[in-house]
């Protein structure tokens, strides 16, 4: 049984927890990995994970080094009036992907899910439960429509930021929003 409280001595505990989380998320997927299992793998009490990271979703975001935490961004996105959802979603995507430092972890993640079925499963489970299902429920749309909106956005960022296809790569954010937001709005409107 893991000891309660902090370990004595230098505190590498946070990094050990993150390393354990990465291993278990990779081996068991997002749904399969548990806070208790990760705590046991790191040799700490589950309460310490909650102290450092809060929720399983926040631990996942930290372990994967994601520049955006859906637990923070989704409530802000979903608090907007329904008719502004498409524009807010597209602007959020463009702001995250437009920042080269924020883009780097996403690019690494895309590469890993393309080459590794375990990584793909982990990300699929996380996106489905932490993002897409919440958006679909909040906006009263079928999950297929939330997934279609995500597909449109992933295609956009692939062409704009990864492949850098002109004129998408050179268009202003406002031009992209004007073109893409209506489609996202359609997907996310009941």
Automatic annotation (TrEMBL):
Pfam families xref list: TetR_C_16, TetR_N
Annotated keywords: DNA-binding
Gene3D superfamilies for this protein: Homeodomain-like, Tetracycline Repressor, domain 2
Highest rank taxon of the organism: Bacteria
Signal peptide positions on this chain: none
Record feature DNA-binding region, as residue ranges: 34-53
GO MF: DNA-binding transcription factor activity; transcription cis-regulatory region binding
SUPFAM superfamilies: Homeodomain-like (SSF46689), Tetracyclin repressor-like, C-terminal domain (SSF48498)
tRNA processing found in the keyword field: no
Domain HTH tetR-type: 11-71
Name listed for the protein in its UniProt record: TetR/AcrR family transcriptional regulator
């Amino acid at each position: 049984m893991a000891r309660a409280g902090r370990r004595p001595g230098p505190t590498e505990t946070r990094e050990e927890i993150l390393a354990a989380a990465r291993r278990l998320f990779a081996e068991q997927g997002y749904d399969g990995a548990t806070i208790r299992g990760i705590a046991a793998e790191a040799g700490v009490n589950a309460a310490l994970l909650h102290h450092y990271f809060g929720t399983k979703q926040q631990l996942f975001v930290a372990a994967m080094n994601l520049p955006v935490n859906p637990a923070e961004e989704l409530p802000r996105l979903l608090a907007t009036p329904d008719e502004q959802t498409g524009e807010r979603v597209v602007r959020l995507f463009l702001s995250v992907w437009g920042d080269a430092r924020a883009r780097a972890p996403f690019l690494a993640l895309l590469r890993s899910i393309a080459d590794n079925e375990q990584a793909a499963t982990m990300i699929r489970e996380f996106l489905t439960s932490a993002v897409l299902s919440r958006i679909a429920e909040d906006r009263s749309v079928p999950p297929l429509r939330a997934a279609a909106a995500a597909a449109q956005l992933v295609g956009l960022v692939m062409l704009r930021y990864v492949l850098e296809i002109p004129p998408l790569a050179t268009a202003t954010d406002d031009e992209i929003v004007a073109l893409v937001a209506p489609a996202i709005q359609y997907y996310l409107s009941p």
